[in-house]
Design goal:
Blueprint: H1 7-14, E1 31-34, E2 37-41, E3 49-52
Antiparallel strand pairs: 1-2, 2-3
């Protein structure tokens, strides 16, 4: 079980859409996991993200992921 900095971060990262199989296709998903950390999903038809270092909801520094 993963540790989250806040309830909003947990809710977003655990959200599963009944319509979109891929989180990057779902307009309700804001955060994505990448090998180097976390990012804001760019909903342009691809799987691009903008890397972030802090939680957009609570401001906590996010850990880097392996």
């Amino acid at each position: 079980m993963a540790d989250y900095c806040c309830d909003q971060m947990q809710e977003d990262l655990e959200r599963r859409c009944a319509v979109h199989e891929d989180r990057s296709d779902c307009p309700d998903a804001f955060i994505g996991r990448a090998s180097g950390g976390y990012g804001l999903l760019i909903h342009d038809g691809g799987s691009s993200m903008i890397a972030i270092s802090f939680c957009p909801w609570c401001g906590t520094r996010l850990p880097e992921r392996d």
